[in-house]
Specification:
It is a single chain. The chain has two domains: about 100 residues, Roll (Pnp Oxidase, Chain A), CATH 2.30.110.10; about 40 residues, no CATH class. The strands form two sheets. The chain has a four-stranded antiparallel beta sheet with strand order 2-1-5-6. Strands 3-4 form a two-stranded antiparallel ribbon. Strand 5 and strand 6 form a beta hairpin. Helix 5 packs across helix 6. It is an alpha+beta fold. Helices cover about 35% and strands about 20% of the residues. Bound molecules: flavin mononucleotide.
Length: about 160
């Protein structure tokens, strides 16, 4: 795309009108602050408030980002579920430095998190797996995350089997 064709992108502009960020309003503990803001995101009924961008680093140092869903919180960690053999799973196995980004555009707010990823206890993964609709459970077994799917029929056949 040429510079001229790009001008309309550069012209996209939004005036942020919601409330600002004042230090006295912030909690000392960032996790407490996150819980408050997450509650506000839920209350505002924005689309997928628990969607977050997870970035990992490949062995060659190249970062990779994708969306995952927040499925649990405790005082010090953010929980998500994925396939350990996926690209992100393999990245984390080699290097567990990760970042998370929540972007709540409707609230004019983002939250940036940097930390280390660890496997949740097996019981917790199992508990979540069992809580999912049976079609989602089968879907998770049938699809090898991050792998090229030969065809739609292949996936449907695997699902039925
Ligand atoms: C809204 C949304 C939510 C998603 N949530 C998850 C999730 O919770 N866990 C997951 O493994 N993949 C989730 N995905 C799919 C991932 O973004 C990604 O495509 C997939 O996990 C393969 O990533 P990888 O090849 O980088 O490992 C989600 C995608 C979208 C668009």
């Amino acid at each position: 795309m040429s510079f001229h064709e790009n001008r309309h992108i550069a012209a996209l502009r939004k005036n942020y009108q919601r409330k600002g960020l004042d230090l006295p309003d912030l909690q000392d503990d960032p996790m407490t602050q996150f819980s408050i803001w997450f509650g506000e995101a839920l209350e505002a009924e924005i689309t997928e408030p628990n969607a977050m961008i997870l970035s990992t680093v490949a062995p060659d140092g190249v970062p990779a980002s994708r969306t995952v869903l927040l499925k649990g919180l405790d005082g010090e960690s953010f929980h998500f579920y994925t396939n350990y053999s996926s690209e992100k799973g393999l990245h984390i196995k080699e290097n567990n430095n990760v970042s998370l980004l929540f972007l709540w555009l409707d609230l004019e707010r983002q939250v940036r998190i940097t930390g280390k990823a660890f496997e949740l206890p097996m019981e917790e993964s199992l508990y979540y797996f069992k809580s999912r609709p049976v079609d989602s459970q089968i879907g998770a077994w049938a699809s090898n995350q991050s792998k090229v799917v030969p065809s739609r029929q292949y996936l449907e056949r695997k699902f039925r089997r």
